[in-house]
Design a protein that fits this description.
Layout lengths: L1 H34 L4 H24 L6 H28 L4 H24 L4
Helix pairs in contact: 1-2, 1-4, 2-3, 3-4
Length: about 130
Amino acid sequence: MLLQRDLIIRFLKYSLVGCISVGVYFLSVFIFIEKYQWDPVIGSAAAFIIMTIVSFLINIRYTFNSRFTQRKLVRFLLVSLVGFLLNVILIFFIVHILSFHYFIGELVTVLVIPLVNFLLNNYWTFQGE
């Protein structure tokens, strides 16, 4: 039961960091797309990169109580690349194929990508630390 409790606490911390990261993401998306009139796919991609940097810096210490290693950074970036590819595919499909507003695409990505990233980071990047 302790392992399950620790996993739940870690997921809650990851979720809090995720909320902060999503705030950074949406602010960046808004600036890139609304202010600078970037294409939604490009604006979303740039915002995702910014969000990933913020997420790593907070998660390594707060969520996973870990220390920085090059291996963890590489793994985190690979997990983020999976999330990034999912993000681009979902946004492209929703905006350019289904012709929905980019905000609908952003809502979908916020529901799907964090869960995938947590599972990969918890069980691979930080190996249940």
